[in-house]
Amino acid sequence: MLPDLKRVMTTNQHNPEEPATKDSIAPISRWRLKSLVFISGAVLMGLEMVGSRVLAIHFGSSIYVWGAIIGIFLAALAGGYYAGGLAADRKPSFMLLNLIALIAGCWLVLLPLYDNFIARGIRSTNLGARIEPLLATIVLFGGPSILMGMVSPFSVRLSASALERIGNVAGRLYALSTLGSIAGTLVTAFWLVPMIGVNTILKALGLALIVISLVGMPRSRASLKIVVPLLIVVLAGLLIKAPPFIPLRLDQHLLYDGDSAYHHIMVIDDDRSNNRMLLFDNYSQSIVSRTPPYESNSYTNSFQLAKIFNSHPKRVLFIGGGGAVGPRKLISEDPDVKVDLVEIDPVVVQLSYDYFHLTNNDRLRVYVEDGRRFVRRAEERYDLVVLDAFTVRAHMPFHLATREFMQEIKDKLTPGGVFLENVVSALDGSRSRILRSEYKTAASVFDSLYLFPRPYDFERGQAAPLPATRPRNVMLIALNGSEQWSAESITKSARSLQEAGLVHTPTFLDDALNFYLGRLRTDDVPLLIDNYAPIDTMAF
User: Fold this and answer.
1) CA torsion, points 323, 327, 333, 338, in degrees to nearest 10?
2) Residue 478, SS3 per DSSP
3) Could you tell me the fold of the domain covering 2-239?
């Protein structure tokens, strides 16, 4: 077998029947080949990074989504390596290699025209949190990833002029591809995603592959017959505007549409409801009226429930900004309160000023920082801490849901201070695991806990009585003290607050009287700790 292998490895790359020589690829072709290997590696990892943003809009960013992305991209690479090796042995042509890269580039340029349509279709199948992102990753990114995976083994075949040098050649080219992947990862994650939109990134990645493949494409009549039609299709794809992430009604108007380092963000005016909405990855985060004083009828009004247990909080911390609706309302109603607002996303903070009527105020300090990091370094103590932070699909960041973090919050509360956490979950059944886990976790730190479910259909977006098995906003309130409040004392305090004019929310009393008296089963859910907090895998 060895003589046959030597014969195969030493044949000319352009004509397998002729012996290969050291210069079987001209120096300029070698430069083009190495450039193609580097760019292909960069584009592949850039696609993996931006692909997570495409999927997050529809499937969230849970461990299942990232597992699907990493697993399918690795599988596509394996398939590409195998297919590339076979193709290179059958026809070791520099033109064929560039054609493979060209097709992959064209694929990426056209991807924004249909990715959301396909993702929405897969989401509607209700196959579950594991299968849906797996299937979407295969359909959307499997093809171009396989093609890019073919580049490295094909390049090794074209570059190796002798069996004795195959290890050196393969090592150099795969190292070059890996360096490209590192560059693609860092550039996409650190600069491209925060600076330009997902669709633009996809087109830019595709164009990079197209350009480098055209540079290396031999000038011949045969190549033109293939390249010209592909370029016409690409040009059409560039000229056609991609459909919006969310189909809008005629009475809805898009004010802002962009990407930050954390979300795809949209601001929409709705003429039908006369509201303005802030959406992260297709999910509503804040809603305010477009009529002064620009108040909200959403769950943020339920933050006032904390006053039942501490009627005059002077120092308040909000973790999670959204449209800054809660902090703005609290400041407008209480001239003595001082608020620290912590929001990790600088784009969200700017949008709060630009579209949601947040103004500079001596009693409001805004910090662009991770909430847990802020709590850990904070020197002040607070009368009230409100945790209203979510990633996508109303899942909390796992590191803000653990016992260790709740202990850090408790350490920053004044005696009798209140911790209020907004949880999206059902009260009972299979969709209640988030609430029951959070309750179990909070109960391991605080002695006095209370639940106030909001009578609002989270899925349908309307106020309505709900069975316990349907998800809704639930205010989990914990006190820094051992005092236990009875139903009578809660009702009495709520009525006193309303009569004294200390709350200005029409539904306050109804929300207060809707406290949950049932018992939550917690023996079948985990206690969330830093070492184990699978909250992003729990259904709600």
Assistant:
1) -150
2) strand
3) Growth Hormone; Chain: A; (1.20.1250)
Report CA-CA distances (Å) from 57 to 61, 70, 284: 9, 18, 12
Catalytic residues: 388
Q: Check: CB of residue 56 under 8 Å from CB of residue 115.
A: no
Choose the CATH number for 295-537 among 3.30.450.20, 3.40.50.300, 3.40.30.10, 3.40.50.150: 3.40.50.150
User: Mind listing the pLDDT tens digit for each residue in 173-187?
Assistant: 999 999 999 999 999
**By the 8 A CB rule, do 244 and 233 touch?**
no
Give residue 330's pLDDT. 92
Cβ-Cβ contacts under 8 Å for 373 (sequence gap 6 or more): none
Helix (H) or strand (E) holding 382: strand 382-387
Percentage of the chain modeled with pLDDT above 90 = 63
pLDDT greater than 80 at residue 162: no
> How many residues does the structure list for the chain?
540
Position 17 scores a pLDDT of 36
Give the model confidence (pLDDT) of 51-105 as tens digits.
Answer: 999 998 888 888 899 999 999 999 999 999 999 999 999 998 889 999 999 999 9
Is the alpha carbon torsion for 166, 172, 175, 177 positive or negative?
negative
- Contact at 8 Å (CB) between 42 and 187? yes
Residues 6 or more apart in contact with residue 474 via CB below 8 angstroms: 422, 423, 424, 425, 427, 435, 451, 452, 453, 454, 516
Which phi and psi (to 5°) does residue 209 adopt? -65, -40
Rg (C-alpha) for the chain, rounded Å, is 29
For 372, the token pair is 């847990």
User: Is a pLDDT exceeding 50 seen at residue 5?
Assistant: no
- DSSP per position, 337-361: -EEEEEES-HHHHHHHHHHS-----
Q: Do domains 2-239 and 295-537 have the same CATH topology?
A: no
Residue spans of the domains in the chain: they are 2-239, 295-537
Q: What are phi and psi of 358, to 5 degrees?
A: -75, 130
- Give the pLDDT of residue 462: 53
Partners of 413 in the β-ladder:
382
Q: How far is CA 274 from CA 251, 288, 359, in A?
A: 10, 9, 22
